């Protein structure tokens, strides 16, 4: 893998990129062309993305030039693909039907833990403490499959803001509460601080052995044991599992306790099916590949700065921040594998909220704003409730918004519409200008037959592989996050200055930072 990367030129110098770029600029959205891919039971409709025979041909040539086949194989086989940290990124092994022995062992341990807890009706309350990849996936799955009710109360504490852990613990019975602490490195400041407060809360309530009410998921069981965790309650992660790809591991212990271990198994099965599709489908019918190439056209050729995620399903509200982290932490890079500037725009900002709330919040900007953004519409064909008129309205809104973004409305159409509604001609000429929609705005429609563990697992894996493909094309390592790490290092030093353990270093800080460190430190020390 490393040899392949060293030999790979920067994207901007790649002849295949220049040809793809030209083909993308010349391509159009042809509303008459229906392009739908069936992948692992999902339907991915890319009919509202730019398309042409030349774009398809140059896209395949670009993938080959960037050695996509070899890099995909390396990732799926567990070879080193995270070159800056010299690690594999083998999260696909966590959901493989026949995984390696150590993964089988941890699956068995987690399932036994859940079975024992359920049979004894223990821990009516779960407080999940983790942040980023140790938090968002669990929030997503618990909300998706426990949105109506679960017999256990589940709370989350991620932020280092003390209000987060205070709110998570408030009103719970410490004697019947399990603290699930997830930290791959077991050095994450937010997680450890919140974990300490949770243990103090239990001690103050008279819990004889607080650590009997603690489960830990980490790649550093040695540090967890020093912290006090019992070895029987520590579940292992591996260096080859990135935090934002760890949903498939024992990080989902809270999900299993809240909505059942069968949910985790179903999600793993759906993700494995998408892995098989990604590994074997030809480029033109490969959903992650086509989703990725459309995204590259939108970002690097057409210049769209963001991607909107619009899940038309209330249960998938937490999908937006989950994908936000997956895409922006993976692709928020500006140099390639060799440290050279990429030279084209990469990694769009990802944002959104569920429809139809989104329509009453920011869809005006999507339709008539000067920039706009591509939209990924996600919807379930079959509802999980018993009110068909609600689901009919939801589906109608989803399709209508997508059609309006694509078709737009010309001045003549708007003018005629005004006249037909009885508006006087002079006013209609003026008002029609305000009703013009530019149209031609790209979107993708992802249809799940229904929301199930299987389809959600396939959906998440679809986006994981999409991110990988875009990393290959751009020459980005999507498995590290040095920007995040830099901020953590600075925070440790400022923490020492704020707490009075260290003098404020005026030479190290800019004037504004130094001012606020002094001011906040005086306030904390009562000065």
What does this structure look like?
The protein is α/β, with parallel strands linked by helices and 527 residues long. The chain has four domains: 2-84 and 283-407 and 441-474, Glucose-6-phosphate isomerase like protein, domain 1 (Rossmann fold); 96-259, Rossmann fold (3-Layer(aba) Sandwich), CATH 3.40.50; 408-436, no CATH class; 482-525. 49% of the residues lie in helices and 11% in strands. The chain has a six-stranded mixed β-sheet, with helices on both faces. It has a five-stranded parallel β-sheet with strand order 6-5-7-8-9, sandwiched between helices. Helix 6 (136-146) runs parallel beside helix 10. The longest helix is centred in the last third of the chain and has 22 residues, at 453-474. The N and C termini lie far apart (56 Å). The model has no long low-confidence stretch (mean pLDDT 95).
Keywords:
527 residues; Rossmann fold; 4 domains; six-stranded mixed sheet; five-stranded parallel sheet; globular
Summed up:
By secondary structure, the chain is α/β, with parallel strands linked by helices.
CATH superfamily of the largest domain: Glucose-6-phosphate isomerase like protein, domain 1
Describe the main β-sheet briefly.
6 strands, mixed
The order of strands across the largest sheet is 1-2-13-12-10-11
User: Could you say what the CATH architecture of the largest domain is?
Assistant: 3-Layer(aba) Sandwich
How many strands appear in the DSSP assignment? 13
* Total domains: 4
Percent range of helical residues: 40-55%
